Fold these 2 entries.
Entry 1:
Amino acid sequence: MELVRLAAQGDSDAFEKLVMPHERMMYALAFRMCRNAEDAKDCLQDSMLRIYKALPNFRGESSLSTWFYRIVNNTCLDSHRRRKVRKAESIEKLSQSGWNPVDPAPGPQQSAENASLKRALSAGIKTLSPEIRSAVVMRDIQGFSYEEISEVLEINIGTVKSRISRGREKLRGFLIASGEL
Amino acid sequence: MSEEIRFPVEDEQIAALLKGLDDGLQVPPEVTAAWKQAIRSESLKTENKKPKKQNILRWVGEIAAALLLLVGATLVWRSFGNSDITVPNTNVPAEKASEKYVFYTKTASVDSALPTVYDKDESASSRTAADKGYGVLEDNFEEASDDDMIIFTQSSDTVLEGMSDFEENETPTESGFVYIGKLDIYESDIPRAKAHLETIVNSVESAYIESEQTQLVSGSSTVSGTIRVRNEHLDELTEAIGNKFASSEIEINRINVTHDKSDLSDKLQNAYELKDRLDKEIEFAGTNADISLYEKLQELLDEINDYETAILKSEIDLEYATLNYTINGSEGKTAAVPATYGSRGFGGFMKDLGKVSMVMLPVIALTALITMHLSQRKRKKAQ
């Protein structure tokens, strides 16, 4: 809490120490919510700034991590609303529009199928609406509980489950259409 | 041909496929550097925008400026409204007072002014006028102001003419005028004032205290009495009193009683003549004189006695001035120490400043509160 207090007073070093443990998860969420890596970088930066400015007003009603992810999610949604995201129908069209998913775990041992599947999943996630996407990403990729997702997205748990279910269904359809399933 | 992996079409399968999708995801160093740099920049901005601590001296300066405005406005206002700063002198020296009230008429001769019953030589009094400063009294003499200790009044019958020079032995015609004065002394120590007055009276030739009484009025004692002094010594008496008592008022009235005296004399003369006629009638009637004659004679004798008494009194009044005095225990009419311009000005200014401040302070306080509240809100918004 001392770190929170110092960071709230504007201590940038204290702020860095505060958010660094959550940086990867925050970036991962931003990565999945944004169109490309460059947007994810911008989104993360904006999110950090928002957190830095809003930290003095943090009342501790939720956990710090939940609060961080909420801000990231909202920042990405704001970014999405400012841009018209064309809905890609296929991986090819996404690639043509400049989509260049970063291979999260490139490695020499990765099989071609796995890589193809992951690319398909990444592409499929992009086709989801932001509201559904955030729920699916947080649940299925990042492993948040329904309660945590409910807190971050500020929706009730039933809505969280509903969104997740719809997201999975769409992904399944996308994978089938892509030939991955 | 590589076989494509077909997973069971189950929601949980999708979840399983998604799980671990980002296990190898690492935050690129440039991303970390970018947001860190952004935070540091924001931190510097915030440092520069931090509200400065309230400058107490600034507040003091603002208050001082407001007070200066109030003081300046009050001074300007008072300068327009302050028309007369002169302080009237309420303590006229006695020597000036004594010059005012004595006036003499100039007639052709002393005899014409005196009633026939008077012996000119007995009633005449000599006086040198030059050193007394007798002057001309105009009919419409200026009414004495409140500043003056001596107020001269005159009856409508007074005929006053200037007499600038007297022969040393020429007797001013005082007969026909009586001097009746009113003396008010204001002293807190009445016994001492009484003693002083007695000393003065005893020191002036022909002056004496005819009567005196002490009264208690509204909780404070008052001594009143009558002083008689020959007319020619009245000046000396009033001057001595004025010099001794700083807080005193003397008012001398000069009344022309020539007509009254003449009228009395005529009546007396008639009464004498009537008595002579009655005596003759009684003598002629002898023992057969009617009793009514004797009654009439008695009435006449009483009348003559009254006239003679009145004439005698008026003779004394003509010769002796009457000064009715009162020694007051209160100092209500004490001539206050004339306030200087500075003290009057400062006192009045402070009163006016107080009035102005009382009116303006609530407005100033309210303005200050609103300003402070707005400043605090602004700082909160900046945060």
Entry 2:
Amino acid sequence: MVLVTTAPLESLPPSNVLRGPAFGAVVTFHGAVRGDEQGEPIAAIAYEAYESMALKSLQAVAERAESRWPVRVEIAHRIGRVAVGEISLLVEAAGAHRAEAFQACQFVIDEIKREAPIWKVDYEKARP
Amino acid sequence: MSIQLLFFAQAARWMGASHLALDLGGAATLGQLLRENERPLAPVIAQLKVLRIAVNQQFAGLETPLRDGDEVAFLPPVSGG
């Protein structure tokens, strides 16, 4: 599954794809919004995406990971306003063993940051 | 015959718009489209060194051919994740 959504990722149901007797290791990454940006406190970040291309990009990243390691991968990226502490990026990688699951998860995160057409477009200042 | 142009993030701020429809005219490639529309596209043409351009959701170069109805997107350096 790859998903680009304005809905809170915390509300996503658990994956029914990355569970089963073949998977001895499921690595889950939550990328959350930190409370400061370059030393200044913030309340939220606004994300923008070229949604049609972002979906294709996330799908391509997942497929590259799945062809490189014996894993299955799911990705969800939130767009719109994401408050501090909320999840902006969810990556899950499942494999028989932890080595490939961790490596694939790291790879997916790095690739998304490198190429997905998604942007942080506004930093909402925190109220004093 | 028109081309749909999309501008994202900083590119939209430079253009003052997120969407523009242009007549393809005689332009057969992305480079020709930019050359034939220098005035309306001046803000993004000035920033081509930092922008990537996608045609129909595929990264493209100035030699990429264009057809009626194509979607051309101007993409600043990404910052997702």
